[in-house]
Amino acid sequence: MGHLVSASTTENKMGSTRFRMSLRSALNASLVFGGLIALVVVFSVLSKSFLTFSNIFQILQQVAVVGILSIGQAFVIITAGIDMSQGSVIDLVGIMTGLLLEHHYPIWISMVAGLLIGAATGFVNGLLITLAKIPPFIATLGTMSIDAGIALIIPNGQPVFGIPQSVYNFGNGGVLKIVPNIALLMIVLAIAFHFVLSKTKFGRCTYAVGSNPLAARLSGMQVNRHIIFVYILSGVLSAVGGIVMLAWVNSAMPDMGTNYQLNSIAAVVIGGASLFGGEGTVWGSMIGALLMAVLANGSQLVGISSYWQSVLLGIVVVLAVFIDGFRRRSAGMNA
Amino acid sequence: MMRKTKSTLHKKGCLSGAVGVAAMLAVGCGTDVSHTATNVPNVPVAASTKHYTFELITKSNDSPYWLAVKQGADDAAKKYGVTVTFEAPATETDLTTQLSMFNNAVTAHVDGVILAAQNPSALVGPVEHAEKEGIPVVTVDSGVSPNVSDCFLATNNISAAEALAEYAAQKVHGKGQYAIIDFNQESSTGIQRPEGWQLGMKKYPGIKYVGMQLGNNSITTSEAEAETFLHAHPNINLMFGANDRSVLGIANAVQAMGLKGKVFVAGFDADMGEVGDIKSGLINAAILQYPYEMGYEAVEELVAIKHGQHVPKQIDTPYMLVTTQNVNTPAAIKAISQYIPGYKG
Lengths: 335, 345
What we know:
The structure holds two protein chains of two kinds. Chain A has one domain: ABC transporter involved in vitamin B12 uptake, BtuC (Orthogonal Bundle), CATH 1.10.3470. Chain A is 76% helix and 1% strand. Chain A contains 14 helices and two strands; from the N terminus they run H-H-H-H-H-H-H-E-E-H-H-H-H-H-H-H. Chain A is globular, with a radius of gyration of 20 Å. By secondary structure, chain B is α/β, with parallel strands linked by helices. Chain B is built from eleven helices and twelve strands. In chain B, the strands form two sheets. In chain B, strands 2-1-3-4-5-11 form a six-stranded parallel sheet, sandwiched between helices. Chain B has a six-stranded mixed sheet with strand order 7-6-8-9-10-12, sandwiched between helices. The longest helix of chain B has 17 residues, at 64-80. The A-B interface holds A 47, 49, 52, 54-55, 58, 61-62, 65, 156-159, 161, 168, 172, 245, 248-251, 253-256, 258, 296-297, 300-301, 303, 305-307, 310 and B 61, 85-91, 93-96, 99-101, 103-105, 107-109, 118-119, 121-122, 124-125, 184, 186, 216-217.
């Protein structure tokens, strides 16, 4: 869909459009950032345990998996795609890495095997989308179901235990009891991929493919190859998320990651990305993920029931996209 | 099995009748069906100097079983003048959400946590941490392993299944053959129920064991396996399904093969289909658990801990043997309504 919309724009407009879009992304991200600060203030006033070191540790631990997924999802969404298979990659990687660890394979082999599963899923997604011309939503919905099924078949539906103590320690430890290791990993990955997206040829190519694939192809970019790489990136980062979750919860259940992609999509969209492609940042996505984690944590601390938390989260997602769309329309009229 | 004798039974009028029936129905000697003991807090009702807030975290937030636990906790909270807040993930497999909820409760420094753990190993560390922070934890239905909580309240699956086996064996006059459909062999309930059943059957050497199959929590798989058993062993007159889906599969097979009344079908738990089958006699007996009791007693134990009393590490909650004969009694209806809200018989 995004391809059709953006194909009508001409190549020479691309530069200025991109400038305006990145400005808008930044503006939106700062708006969401403002919302995040407001939430933090409100929760700090309402609950005396909210702004404590131990709670900040909790929030960071809770945001890590979604944050890591959001990085990959941001790249995919910027190319006007979507990756529905992320949650199932967590399932499958959790089970496979967990089983290898349980059978005393070296930790690095177990992890590399997990990352390869993520890469393979991403590669298949990329091939289905570029060569078979299947829309991203359907293609990744297919691999989502396949991975989820294999994650149930291999352990016969049973959870996997027997994770080594060192892995558990990594998943639950932290630096100075303030920043959990897994959140530190998320921050390092976010900084690295923020750099890739904003400063490298790969990043520029990602925006170009999303905002105008035709122009990108005419200017000599390998569009299909780039799309495949982006889905592999999302698959590998999902695998990292799966390993992190495994280390955190000290076990693997065949459906422990199911539907996590919905959280990463929400984070990326709250962070100012457009599902039509060409817009979005890693930084914004991180803010989006953090906003959702703060909302869940804070509303529990102040005693909002879990039923209402879901309603609140839905309102936040819709509101963020509405504000973004409203500004987008008024910006369009001004142009 | 040793246990303390002081019972909370009389404090809970609404369920004492049902428990009495359960005790009456307990066949065989020495099996523990009767309500087990707890250290009832020796405090005047609603007279605590400090107002306590406990958090109840179940496996999911929309199953009748867990909402029954919540109802029990709410009623006890009213009686003891404490507040119980309820948190649970949307699905029983959203482990990270449950973990977060538990950690958040500890961060919020609630006065105690009641937990039904989605996974026995993942919650061990967090429960230990809570205890270190001085926050007591009572686990219900599904505990953590090793049990680092203050108290674990659950149905004794072994003795319940043993009582069910003895009842069934007497109904077939101690003669014949039996087979088991289990739902899995990994969870504690999946292991303990067939184990308890076999214990009961040992006392009836006239009934021969044919075999056990795993239905993987699927009605259709269980049904196919039951049919295979019944075809291969026409002398089977007794079948045990270790949970609601296993026993529904058996019931379907028995009905399809026209063996109703010829094969005694025994099971665990209740849903609408199972209750219908119990009424029609397709399922002859089933063990129903008392999630309401678990929630109620969990609050009592937390209050006791808060008043510095010692509580037992493990407490068996009651269960009821519901049969085609007693399914329409008020006690059975009360027990079934814990699984099916608004069930009136």
